[in-house]
Description:
Elements: H1 5-36, H2 38-59, H3 64-67, H4 69-86, E1 108-109, E2 112-113, H5 115-129, H6 161-177, E3 185-188, H7 195-207, E4 213-217, H8 218-226, H9 234-238, E5 241-247, H10 254-269, E6 273-278, H11 282-288, H12 291-300, E7 302-305, H13 311-317
Parallel strand pairs: 3-6, 3-7, 4-5, 5-6
Antiparallel strand pairs: 1-2
Helix pairs in contact: 1-2, 2-4, 6-7, 10-12
Amino acid sequence: MILTNSQYDIIMSEYSLRQNDVQRELAARTEEIYTALPEYKELRDRISRISLEATTAALRGDRSLLDNLSPEIDKLNLAMSNVLTDAGYPTDYLEPHYFCPKCRDTGYVDSRKCSCFIQTSINLLYKESNLSDTIGDCSFYKFSVDYYPEDFIDSTTGVSARANAAHVLEISKEFVKNFGSGDNLLFYGNTGVGKTFLSNCIARELLDNAHSVLYISANALFDRFSDFENGNTSQIFDCELLIIDDLGTELSNSFTNSKLFECINSRLLSKKSTIISTNLSIKSIMETYSERIFSRLSSSYRLLKLYGDDIRFKKRSR
């Protein structure tokens, strides 16, 4: 799990809010008990007084009160507990009720990230991924090769659509397994053959393991680059996995070519993985984008073609 400074600050701000809520609720419960059960407050005040008296005496050289302090406090604590339970309150009513008792809402247990910190990170990463509303049904076990016909044979490779899809699925699983090595994928093929779904399957696996993922369409990517005032591009370069969907649907010009090269090249240099999906053929990619871009894609990306019938149409007709 690699968080940016801003992501870490967001998470720790949430923990600070949790701690404030716990203290506010505890203060309200304490005020309630002091009002309803004044004898409880008297006992607590008694503990404060004898503790102060014993400490003051010890500073003067008399430790007798301090040596007998613990048994006396134990008796008073038992009396306080009885006052609460006799009035129908649970014994822990005036103890902090933490969102996470393991870390007491600090995010850490013995200097290690608590499980709640990891889950909070995952929730934030999902929110920032642009996938939280669309990724729910995407998982490898739901990627069925049965949608790919065995009699649909690629004329170049001689491989059936089904066998090819099974191969691409295994490569995608390996991508997740070996994530962090800087691998990159380019899915290409006609509309509806599972490119985006498979990208989302990969994204879900990584998000569930607290990796930062950003999904963005090609149009939105270049809109963000062109919005100089409001376009925050740091996430594009910093996220562990960038998914660029529907490359080729944008208006191609010198600006988009320049920014696409900058994005691809920068992430390659920093060894951050990128997945690109496109309806363009390899020939069309060569014709649409600069030679520098195609050189980076062909040399540093695994080019994976998906082909067959439109799966979305098949699902609707079932």
